[in-house]
Each structure stands twice: as C-alpha cells, then as structure tokens.
Amino acid sequence: MSDFQLNPIYEQIIDDLLQQQYSIADDFFSDNEVIALRESLLQKYEEDNFKKSAIGNLSNEKIIDAVRGDFILWLNEEESNAAEKAFFNKINDFVQYLNRTCFMGIQNQEFHYALYPEGTFYKRHLDTFQSDSRRKLSMVCYLNEQNWQPDYGGELAIYKDNNGLEVTENIYPVKGRMVIFESQLLEHEVKPVKQPRLSITGWLKTR
Ligand code: OGA
Ligand code: MN
After folding, report:
1. 3 found inside a domain
2. Mean pLDDT (whole number) for 120-133
3. Rounded to whole angstroms, how far apart are CA atoms 88 and 84?
4. pLDDT confidence of residue 147
5. Cα 89–chain centre separation
6. Pick from 8, 114, 125, 168: CA 20 to 30 A from residue 53's CA?
C-alpha cells in the first residue's frame, strides 16, 4: 500500500455506492478517451460487427424485441485497439482501487459496446441471471456525440426504494457520463430512444 494515492473521483463513486447503491460520474474518462471510444464503436458498427442483443445467458439466450432492442459487440481486452486499451487501463485501475480500499473481490470483467437504434428500449430488469450471480457492479459509459436533448428520450431509469416508497431517478445519457450501480440490487430500464444511443456497458464480477 506504500504507493497508494487517494483518487477523488473513485472516492466519490465509493461514497455514492455506499449511500444509494449507484453513482453518476461525469469525469471518469477524459473527453479524448470518450471521442476515441465513440469513433471505435462507430467504425465497428459500420463494419457490421454488432449483433442483436439477447436476454438470458448461454444455453438460455433469447432475442426478444419486446424486451430489449439494442445491438452489441463484446470487447476482447487481448485484441483491443488504442481507444479500448486506454479504456481497460482505467477500468483495471479502478478495479484495483476497489479491491484495495473496499475488499470487493472483483476478479473478472466483461464489457460490450451497445447501440440503441431509434425506437428501441430495454424494459425494466435486473442485471443478474439466475445461473450467474457473479455480476457485482454494472458500469455504463455514454458515447453520444452532442449534448443529449431531453426530447431524444433514452433515459436510464433507476428504481430505488425510499423508505418503502419506490422512486425513479431518470438519468440522461450525456456524452462521457459513467453510471455505476449494484447489479444485484437495482432494477433499471432504458426508455425508448428517438436518436441512436451509444454506450460502452459492462460488469465487474466476483468469482
Ligand atoms: C444493460 C443496461 C443501461 C443503459 O445493458 O443491461 O441496462 O443505460 N443498460 O444503457
Ligand atoms: Mn441492465
């Protein structure tokens, strides 16, 4: 721990997670990192590498448009380009910080690009599957270009409990915003979008 340096951005996220099970960090990645990731996503989308998303996992995967309409591409850290390397460097740094300061026991991670075409959404859900409870933290970083306008829709709605009363927090997918939340605790939803909506989304997992 001799080289330990307090990181104010990470500390804020940890505080928020402890207080309310989610955090919104608008400065997790630099502008240049976000622009590079956006370019990378768009290039791979144009090369037709994305697949219609499914729900469930492995043996149990189904494509159901009525639930989820985004297109995704899983990232492979070993085969990543410069933008993705910078992304994984920061994620790995964050994971190391979490494991050192909070003993979170994160062993693994998985991330994909996501693109929601106009008219699509993701109905209310929890990010854990019956057969896979290893997902601990969900992370979504928005790669939209200009500042997202309210009439574009596409809010991330997080459902939380306020003394037994359900309240909804609607979060707009503005460029560079990172939302982090407890995968096993918070139900959430992506409201229908009226503009293509771009993100990089993933999970930090325990063994
Ligand atoms: C998901 C998800 C939220 C978002 O991919 O599981 O809930 O804001 N994404 O894109
Ligand atoms: Mn989700």
Report:
1. no
2. 84
3. 6
4. 83
5. 16
6. 168
